[in-house]
Amino acid sequence: MAGGWFETVAEAQRRAQRRLPAPIYSALVAGSERGATVHDNVEAFGELGFAPRVAEHAAQRDLATTVVGCDVALPVLISPTGVQAVHPEGELPLARGAAARGTAIGLSSFASRTLTDVIHTNAQTLFQIYWIGSRDEVLRRLQTAREGGAIGIILTLDWSFSHQRDWGSPSIPERLDAKAMIRLAPSALRRPRWLTDHLLRGLPNLTVPNMADPGEPAPTFFGAYGAWMQTPPPTWDDIAWLRGQWDGPFMLKGVIRVDDARRAVEAGVSAISVSNHGGNNLDGTPATIRALPSIVEAVGDDVQVLLDGGVRRGSDVVKALALGARAVMIGRAGLWGLAANGQAGVENVLDILRDGIDSTLLALGHASVADLSPADLVMPPLFPRALGVT
Fold first, then answer.
1. Strand 49-50 to strand 377-378: parallel, antiparallel, or no bridges (unpaired)?
2. Strands annotated E in the chain
3. Residue 107 forms beta bridges with which residues?
4. Could you count the other beta carbons within 10 Å of the beta carbon of residue 174?
């Protein structure tokens, strides 16, 4: 896909909107209910200011770090995202783009490409799982990750519990049969480049092969979703048990409260992601950057803390790191880059973030991302949200 270079993540989003059929773009930007959390995730970064220096700036800056067992060239990882119809190759261009820029990717259990396929393109792949089915079924997926060569596990517990969206949920078919194709044709015909790419290289895959039982066909997205809805939510004992089944890096994604962060440490996880599922969980949950400081203060010496949600600029990454995050994870921004220009668009987004991190470090007078601290920021008194503090 020849889309040309873009200079901001906002431009990647605009190009994604012009390129993608309306239902697909809507699925990328949607949040639960009125979208208050989606909005706050992004806008909260703008409430934080910087305290720059004017002399003795570092001539070279080091952006590399080590996070969840990965040596990465910049503190930005690709967050796991479920089955998507952005690109005919699914998650492969995301993985290749991340590898080209020296960073890792999280692959969802609900991805459209298999773990084996993705690891062939990026050895630094973490496998994300949901608590679906019995312990034996969850353990089988863990074994899939082990046999496939995943370097770590992401257990996601902040999935959407809300089905309502004030502007209407996009209509996603269970399978792309003739009836579905006829219904979706008007939207697809308005985006001829997207349609041509998929006709030439394969229609969107709405199955989830990483959820398939041995010897069985891959379930559809809605088949797996239905299994999740019928599964009782896990207990902290379940989480500790699962952690005991995996001897490598193990991240718990979805932590927003201090008491949950402490329980995660007790369960033995090696990292947590401060996340509200990009605003697709309980609307009205504060922005993740607001919850980050209290969680870092409570458990930052015990586990690595990452942030997921609302990152659109390199300066956003720096703000998260200054408040104690080891790295950030990006979901929508990477998918917008993918839509705008395939693998090159993913690399473009990562370059934008890298350059923004570097220039912000320069202004702050630091030689490394490891030197960042809260002293580099101007924080309004009422900015943080300390949830679950007893």
1. antiparallel
2. 49-50, 65-67, 70-72, 76-78, 105-108, 125-129, 152-156, 250-255, 271-275, 304-308, 327-330, 377-378
3. 127
4. 13
Cβ-contact 91, 205 below 8 angstroms: no
Cα–Cα distance, 223 to 218 (Å, whole number): 10
The active-site residue out of 87, 163, 198, 277 is: 277
Report the SS3 class of residue 188.
helix
Q: Which pLDDT value is given to residue 225?
A: 80
Q: Which two tokens stand for residue 198?
A: 């998929």
Render pLDDT for 238-297 as a digit per residue (tens, 0 to 9).
999 999 999 999 999 999 999 999 999 999 999 999 999 999 889 999 999 999 999 999
Residue range 30-82, pLDDT digits in tens: 888 899 999 999 999 999 999 999 999 999 999 999 999 999 999 999 999 98
- d(C-alpha 16, C-alpha 20), whole Å: 6
pLDDT digits (tens, 9 = 90+) for 323-352: 999 999 999 999 999 999 999 999 999 999
C-alpha to C-alpha distance for 271 and 305, rounded to whole angstroms: 6
Task: Examine the residue annotation and report whether 277 is marked as an active-site residue of this protein.
Answer: yes
What's the one-letter identity of residue 19? Answer: R
Q: What is the pLDDT of residues 212-223, one digit of tens each?
A: 888 888 888 778
User: Rounded to whole angstroms, how far apart are CA atoms 356 and 286?
Assistant: 25
What does the alpha-carbon distance between residue 195 and residue 159 come to, in Å, rounded to a whole number?
A: 30
Q: State the Cα–Cα distance between residues 5 and 15, nearest whole angstrom.
A: 11
